[in-house]
């Protein structure tokens, strides 16, 4: 009862905070908008109106399948896309309706064919393991599980013709996690650190029920909020999808949804939806529990926010890992557990000491373990105390002794010299730098992480295709000529001939006309030829492309090994740099308005002094821009060092349009001046982002509002864009740094004016940064004036 | 030098925090007296341009020239020292470092350069630290200072640079009696050529040093006069009544009792505020400012 009451009060405290409700509305609206965009651009999405007619077509199939198929064939044969016998208004032709209906009518057949293929392949692999005697291994047991599930489904599941396109769209949408994770960071910090922030903790911790049980209640409140949050976001996604698309009955088997054909359970769409929602709720609970533990350990809102954001980043990073390296453990990333298509759409199991354990079971156990650990951390560390002052002999005293010992050691090593008397500074800039001591430490830490990340990204992956491509291109590198095309054709012909000889060589070998060595030599040649033919085919395509651009534009394109250059250009968003720039900019004024104690903020004193307004503003902005520039230079230098050390650059005088990836690029660009152009843009773009964060810091002032606004504006469009919603690329502020992506988007937007979008975007972003900085400067100059 | 405050009003939604506040201030100490929520801090923040007024203006007059403080901007702030009611400071700065920062923000030593400037600032900081008895903790981090020390440091940053206008919001909050007296005497010493505005609801802080007392009640000035004039109004209204202890409640139900002094033998002496003699045994007492405060604000007692 006591616990329930405390939990109730924690929830009440949380929802009495205005910005929490604002953030919820903003993120729900964001999710609604992006899910709607995804729904609109989804292939073949079905509106309620269209669904009505498709169902009529399906009825025709049910009445007489043969007649249906015959009529459909006839439409295809004569390419009749205009006849409309089902839709009286003619809005949907029979071609459209019959083809859509066909997809749903054939779903059952297609499903069982797929299952047959899966079962067949699995049987074959299983037999291999039995043949080699490797039956005591995870992989063998995995095959058995696959067979068990899919044979059962093959025997028991029938897919009726049902329009499930909207459910397909819903389950393919994976944008919720980021939205609700950011919102949960806000809530977790408010719940765990809010009392410290507003000074109430001093009173709370002296009450009988103000410590462990209160933190247990806080933990419970987080679980309740996480559950509620997921339900709200799930509802918003459903509203987004089904307000645009046709609502299909959820009682059909889940396998009738195209994206979920291989779900290994005999369950309805509704049942699957319930399971998926349950998984999302568990993921949200785990996420907020971990962030809650961070809050309790660091007891500082900025660090807690950074750790929370970093945890989102870590989960996202895991999704990018190769499943061959990390096996199915990758699917335990919280980001992926909230992605039905990635994680739940087929049978997945994890190798647990050789046993094949269903991934859902592993997820459930791991989640409970993490929740329990997080709760233990919250209860153990919520109240900081000097362990030495207490006569305790338990683990906490030991931890306290270790902590104090390390602190003393650190003090001796780094500050062991006599404390230097303060010499006196008379520069506001010097004091602003002193306030930002953490910046250099953060930069150093992020730089170390960057070195590892860059080393990993620029690790050359030697694939056969790349090796062969490099080999052939080195022979023909340079400006296109007909001789080079002839060379490609000759090599292609040679490979083709070798491949054509395979059957006859095999026969000769079986007849004993070839020795083992001779046959092996031939097979080596054959394998090389079959790998090379793909490369040569691509080179022929490239040659024809270079011919064409010369013919129509007079541009002398060149053959060169593109992959390395594209790999460097396509390195994407450097979230480490963004994190640094974002925190640097956002913290600039937040720390002045934030309460340094239960008493108040420094801002009132600052703003009442002669140099405390625009003078300090200008210096702060200067420091933010200077450190952002320094970070950009260091991070780019790291990338360049690894790239140049491990890859080869082609001659930079080659025209950029030589690469089909840049076919719409302005003709004047060479590789050299493209790289220079994009580098300069990226530099100024990074400074623009820093200025935007800085302006938000002064305009919004409140820590949580500033950081979540910046995070939402910077991260969300990028992630949704990366997930496939191209339209979000036009709002993705990370393009200011990731100029290659912006360049590509711009080239694709308009063939006549390929640079138009880039110019518009950059001009708008720089103008916005200037306008917001000006507004912030005006606000601080005018002080209390409205 | 004058500070003219003309018709300043401020509301927070439906709550009127300040209503048509006007006053003309010359060098000396002005006490802003009033209970919690009377508008003192609102006025302080408007004077320092940390808050906007809904109407009215504040003019600074010096050497025959009058200007609006908002249009003066940084020039006015270079003459200003402000101690807010709930100050925040940088816990990782040392005391001395913090004052150097304030000195830099206030542009102290403008016109002096190099080592001379540093020497000047250093001496001013040491002087001010000595005045507030924080010289021996100059190198200590602010986060390690006690509440009272932080309060005195906040006062030190306000007076640093010899500002012409000094605005102190509850300057003695959190200080022990000895420190309160020290701060009071310090303010009194430095105030001769400054306009000092002290917002407080602790009467004893300003009773003996204030040139004039401005009484604020629910955002409205109910009085603005020297202490002597206010005390004169209380002549014949303050009484001492000896009685038995068991009669105290009876008296309290009928009159405003400012003080109860209990003595041996179950007796007490009550200090009563009343326009007329409350009982025949009551004797007229010399009024104090606290009596006037209770007379104006203590209607619910």
In short:
The complex is a heterodimer of chains A (786) and B (301). Chain A is built from 32 helices and four strands.
Descriptive account of the structure:
The complex is a heterodimer of chains A (786) and B (301). In chain A, the strands form two sheets. A two-stranded antiparallel sheet of chain A has the order 1-2. In chain A, strands 3-4 form a two-stranded antiparallel ribbon. The longest helix of chain A has 38 residues, at 516-553. The model of chain A is unreliable at 386-393 (pLDDT under 50). The two termini of chain A are 48 Å apart. Chain A is mostly helical and 786 residues long. In chain A, β1 (349-352) and β2 (355-358) form a beta hairpin. Chain A has helices at 2-15, 18-41, 48-63, 65-77, 94-105, 107-132, 138-156, 165-172, 176-197, 201-204, 212-242, 269-298, 301-320, 323-326, 334-337, 340-344, 359-381, 395-415, 428-435, 437-457, 464-476, 482-500, 502-510, 516-553, 562-569, 575-593, 603-607, 614-646, 671-700, 703-722, 739-749, 756-782; strands at residues 349-352, 355-358, 478-479, 558-559. Chain A has 32 helices and four strands. Chain B has 301 residues and is α/β, with parallel strands linked by helices. In chain B, α4 (95-105) crosses α5 (114-131). The mean pLDDT of chain B is 89. The interface between A and B is large, with 38 and 44 residues.
Secondary-structure map:
The complex is a heterodimer of chains A (786) and B (301).
Chain A: H1 2-15, H2 18-41, H3 48-63, H4 65-77, H5 94-105, H6 107-132, H7 138-156, H8 165-172, H9 176-197, H10 201-204, H11 212-242, H12 269-298, H13 301-320, H14 323-326, H15 334-337, H16 340-344, E1 349-352, E2 355-358, H17 359-381, H18 395-415, H19 428-435, H20 437-457, H21 464-476, E3 478-479, H22 482-500, H23 502-510, H24 516-553, E4 558-559, H25 562-569, H26 575-593, H27 603-607, H28 614-646, H29 671-700, H30 703-722, H31 739-749, H32 756-782
Antiparallel strand pairs in A: 1-2, 3-4
Chain B: E1 2-12, E2 15-25, E3 28-33, H1 40-47, E4 55-62, E5 65-68, H2 69-72, H3 74-77, E6 80-83, H4 95-105, H5 114-131, H6 147-159, E7 165-169, H7 177-190, E8 195-200, H8 203-206, E9 212-217, E10 220-225, H9 227-233, E11 238-244, H10 248-254, E12 256-263, E13 267-273, E14 283-284, H11 289-297
Parallel strand pairs in B: 3-8, 3-9, 6-7, 7-8
Antiparallel strand pairs in B: 1-2, 1-4, 4-5, 9-10, 11-13, 11-14, 12-13
Helix pairs in contact in B: 4-5, 5-6
